[in-house]
Design goal:
Elements (H helix, E strand, L loop, with lengths): L2 E6 L7 H13 L4 E6 L21 H12 L2 E7 L7 H10 L6 E2 L8 E2 L5 E7 L4 H6 L4 H14 L2 E8 L7 H15 L4
Parallel strand pairs: 1-2, 1-3, 3-6, 6-7
Antiparallel strand pairs: 4-5
Helix pairs in contact: 1-6
Amino acid sequence: MKKVLVINANPKRESFCRSLANSYALSAALEHEVKQLHISEMSFAISLDHGFDDTIALEPDLLRFQELILWAEHIVIVTPVWWGSLPAKFKGLVDRVFLPNFAFKYVKGKSFPEKLLSGRTSELMITLDTPPFWYKYFNGNVIYKHVKNTILDFSGIKNRSATYFGPIASSSAKTRAFWLNKASKLASRIK
């Protein structure tokens, strides 16, 4: 049994990302301990106005998010592609929470920081309004590279997979039902 955190990174209250996250969580809960987080329900300032130069107190929702990250053994991020990248609120969540001495630690004399969230795994579920092959091969697969390399790997979280759902805007009810079933099946692969 694993501790699984499912993050719906879409800032809209109602979205297909939310449906995917719920489908995954319901299936995962059959064999694992699951907690969900919807960033649409969180309240926090998204801008890290002074970078790492000044310590800013974390709002209660951000402290709770840190607790959930530390609790989790497997983290599932369900995010839409907005303008080729992450929604601003999700990027703000990362900026505000994945801080030095939480996600990583600078070590004097070393080029690379210590990864403080090692031992966790993740998977990405990405929705988009363009065909996935177009996003991956013509637009450069920005979200995957950014989230996997510069957020997850940087802090020690090993990403296992990325699954793409799209195009959402032109999808039929039948296609969406197929995708929800696919999300449920992905949850059954947690090891």
